[in-house]
Amino acid sequence: MAVNDDRIHELADSSPDIVIRDMYMADLDAVLGIESHSFTTPWSRNAFQTELLENTFATYLVVEFHGKVVAYGGMWIILDEAHVTNIAVHPDYRGHHLGEAIMTGLMVRAKRSKVVRMTLEVRRGNTVAQNLYNKLGFVQLGVRRGYYTDTHEDAFIMWKDPL
To answer: Among 30, 84, 114, 148, who pairs with 69 as Cys (CB 3.0-4.6 Å)?
Structure first.
């Protein structure tokens, strides 16, 4: 799937109440709420603050629905590669293509930064996310055994090359 600005507008235009934008410090309470509903070992406020304020490689986006932050995603851009660090949608808003909106937003940002390939890890058991990444053109090219510290679950390493 070719990713371009039109795809973001198509996703956003499907509901005029959806806004995809940069994450700000003011969003952290909402993001931490999404984290706690989505992960058994959520990132801390300090981790997100460090990403937003100190990590020059980091880019984070949020999805607002009716003015409420309901999804977010982040990546690190290093040279010509992007590594998706995390992505989550609040459980009450899943099933409405918001994960796709965040991923598409990240991919568009990456392309603007001259990124040529993108990678991420996904839990072996997270078939919903795997299906989304496959839909967006990612392929599984490896496994990180016991990658997730909470359950020791394996992670599939997925790549999109070229972006």
So the answer is: 30
